[in-house]
Amino acid sequence: MTEDHRLLWIYVYTFQGGQFKFLRSGDLPEATFALAENDAYVYCDRPVCKGSRCKFNCKRGFTAYSWCNQHGLWKHSF
């Protein structure tokens, strides 16, 4: 990213709350976020439980927001 065209921040909204990551000029347009135990979502595309005593609940609806100094607010739901 350059000073003329870059992301200023990335925000991830989850079931347990949200997290901001602020980016500096020259950083890659990416960030790593820690998820809480109740934010598990990685198995939503396939069954992971066997039998009727499964306690896993698939969660959908995470949203990531970012702010670009040229294009404004970006939103991606997954």
UniProtKB/TrEMBL annotation:
GO terms for molecular function: iron ion binding; oxidoreductase activity. Residues 54-76 form the C2H2-type domain. InterPro entries: Desulfoferrodoxin_Fe-bd_dom (IPR002742), Desulfoferrodoxin_Fe-bd_dom_sf (IPR036073), Znf_C2H2_type (IPR013087). Gene3D superfamilies: SOR catalytic domain. This is C2H2-type domain-containing protein.
